[in-house]
Write a structure and sequence with these properties.
This protein is of the alpha/beta class. It has 14 helices and 16 strands. The chain has a seven-stranded mixed beta sheet with strand order 4-12-11-10-9-5-8, with helices on both faces. The chain has a four-stranded mixed beta sheet with strand order 1-2-3-15. Strand 1 (about 35-40) and strand 2 (about 45) form a beta hairpin. It is globular. The structure holds pyridoxal-5'-phosphate.
Length: about 425
């Protein structure tokens, strides 16, 4: 038995599925997940000492790679002064000012500890601000695991959303409307049917939780116009895309101003930190200024804020996003060329430091198209690549991430491995 297998057996006895978040268990690809011993730059080492080029980056936060010396120094310096106070600290102001400077759509921001908390709180705030109950989300978008968001599409436009998890009563999801992504006609009809019922529309401006699906031209603009017309709050969930796809996040890339934005992942630099922010008039509805309750013992944790600020400062290096995007494009293009040469139906796309890989001839534009990709072939590709020391996300429905410290040699090594693996999965 390898040490990874020993650890997985031990973990499964005491942690459900052996993991603290389900996709880590490798259920969709099968096999034993590597237990990670350490990371440095673009690399990971597992419990058996195997080295991998990492394209998961802790699911997005590690835009400057693992154990970046400047991030570690910032955390160490802060930690020496104590880990948590449950009282205001100066670094929280620095983080808030920083975020609002880089995202001009945000006048005010509140810090929390996870993306789930950020989206859950932003939706409560939107409901409190508008006095309305219904929220709209899109099929295939993920906004954390709070009850009201674990919903799959119902049959009609404004019919009840069906819970997608056991333990969520239908009474909780009845005000969540699920509509198809990239389908402006569906949401236009929903607003027409209930012009004064929808409190908020929440969207991943680039969907990264159903593999990667880009917004069609006009989709986000259309959401902005509809929310303006009907007085609903437009929430961009940029927990994944924030500071990942563009210096100004997806809202900067597409030039659209949401009313509220949720952030996480990159802004914590690998530590638990997330945020929601936006228009002053909306944000002032939160306690203690307003009637919408929201709180957190560890919110704005100083060591986490230090990790995030150090990471974000590194992204301001000249040419940072151009270089990151070029490396990510080179990976996507290299994989696409390798698949073509091997005669495998495959496509890849990227934006900034985020990419999608699909076992389908065309990049998908909807949840239905993502679901039609060849999952079995992905699984064989995944294991072939893992065997070659390339660590992609262990599911056909996740986006991938390149960091600023992935060098051309790492990208080339990945493409070389892919040539070999594509030939075996034809
Ligand atoms: C990861 C993610 C979340 C949830 O964040 P957690 O920190 O895992 O709770 C929410 N929305 C999007 C778009 C995400 O990618």
């Amino acid at each position: 038995m390898s040490y990874n297998e020993t650890l997985f057996a031990r973990a499964q006895k005491i942690i459900p599925g052996g993991v603290n978040s389900p996709v880590r268990a490798f259920r969709s690809v099968g096999g034993t997940p590597p237990f990670i011993a350490r990371g440095e730059g673009p690399y990971l080492w597992d419990a058996d000492g195997c080295k991998y080029i990492d394209y998961v980056g802790s699911w997005g936060p590690l835009i400057v790679g693992h154990a970046h010396p400047e991030v570690l120094r910032a955390v160490n310096d802060k930690a020496r002064d104590g880990l948590s106070f449950g009282a205001p600290t100066e670094i929280e102001i620095e983080m808030a000012e920083y975020l609002c400077r880089r995202l001009p759509s945000m006048d005010m921001v509140r810090l929390v500890s996870s993306g789930t908390e950020a989206t859950m709180s932003a939706l409560r705030l939107a409901r409190g601000f508008t006095g309305r109950a219904k929220i709209v989300k899109f099929e295939g978008c993920y906004h954390g695991h709070s009850d009201g968001l674990l919903v799959k599409a119902g049959s009609g436009l404004l019919t009840f959303g069906q819970p997608s998890s056991a333990g969520v009563p239908p009474s909780i999801t009845q005000d969540t409307v699920v509509l198809p992504y990239n389908d402006l006609a569906a949401i236009t009809a929903a607003f027409k049917e209930a012009p004064e019922a929808i409190a908020a529309v929440i969207v991943e401006p680039i969907a990264g939780n159903m593999n990667m699906v880009k917004p069609k031209t006009g989709f986000l603009e259309g959401l902005r116009a509809l929310c303006d017309r009907y007085g609903a709050v437009l929430i961009f969930d940029e927990v994944m895309t924030g500071f990942r796809v563009h210096p100004g996040s997806a809202q900067g890339l597409y030039g659209i101003t949401p009313d509220l934005t949720t952030l996480g992942k990159v802004i914590g630099g690998g530590m638990p930190l997330a945020a929601f922010g936006g228009k002053r008039a909306i944000m002032e509805c939160i306690a203690p200024l307003g009637p919408v309750y929201q709180a957190g013992t560890l919110s704005g944790n100083p060591a986490a804020a230090a990790a995030g600020l150090a990471t974000l400062a590194l992204t301001e290096a000249p040419g940072f996003y151009d270089k990151l995007a070029a490396a990510t494009r080179a990976l996507a293009q290299g994989l696409q060329d390798a698949a073509k040469a091997a005669g495998v139906a495959f496509s890849a796309t990227s934006e900034g430091g985020m990419f999608g890989l699909y076992f389908a001839a065309q990049a998908p534009g909807s949840y239905a198209e993502v679901m039609a990709c060849d999952v079995d072939r992905f699984n064989r590709f995944f294991h072939g690549m893992l065997n070659e020391g390339i660590y992609f996300a262990p599911s056909a429905f996740e986006a991938g991430f390149v960091s600023a410290v992935h060098q051309p040699a790492d990208i080339n090594a990945t493409v070389t491995a892919a040539k070999k693996v594509f030939a075996t999965i034809r």
